[in-house]
């Protein structure tokens, strides 16, 4: 009996040469977009529910959709090594991993430069930005080293990701930002406790001070 050709659907399937420690390391680097999406943004929605973070994640979804449209239209093949990697059933230009990471690094950098973000102080923002840009560059290297893309494909993805990241940041913070208060006060916003803290210079310190004040208030009432 003849069986149809099967295709695998997976988020964490990355191949490298057995015994290649560099390849092993870069294979994990190649999975950083998955960790950011599933670990970072999902946990952010569950515990923070910041509008900036939500629109950040939505922009990444749009970026990946654009990537898929371009890949389907151009239909540029991956390197010859794709046969060994079982990746020949998808197109290679532009690299979606590189596009994702450079969108992320660009948007994140612009957020920190504007002072948006509860997770860092302004004094430490250059360290965080350096980390994300290093991860973005290493992701580019990993896709070429592991044989999933050519150099041209990862550079195309990186360029498109940076342009889309900067454009989306401008759109969110110039066009959509005036509507943030209305979203907060909407039925959906109140139901899911959606908020915006972009106007607070140091959110971490703000929350810290308010948490201490609330604790002191409870203690004074119990006396």
Short description, anyone?
The chain is mainly α. The protein contains ten helices and no strands.
Write up what this structure looks like.
The radius of gyration is 21 Å and the shape is elongated. It contains ten helices and no strands. Mean pLDDT is 79; it is low at 1-11. By secondary structure, the protein is an all-alpha fold. The chain is 67% helix and 0% strand. The chain has one domain.
Keywords:
mainly alpha, 10 helices, disordered N terminus, single chain, 223 residues
For the largest beta-sheet, the strand count, sense and barrel status come to: none
The number of distinct helices, counting runs of at least 4 residues, comes to: 10
Distance between the termini: 81 Å
Mean pLDDT: 79
* Rg, Cα atoms, Å: 21 Å
Detail the poorly predicted runs: 1-11
Class by alpha and beta content? mainly alpha
Instruction: Sketch the topology as an H/E string, one letter per element.
Output: HHHHHHHHHH
Helix percent reads 55-70%
Shape: elongated
Question: What number of domains?
Answer: 1
Counted beta strands: 0
List the helices and strands and how they pair.
Elements: H1 21-29, H2 32-47, H3 51-74, H4 82-85, H5 96-113, H6 125-145, H7 151-176, H8 180-185, H9 187-191, H10 203-222
Helix pairs in contact: 1-6, 3-5, 3-7, 5-6, 5-7, 6-7
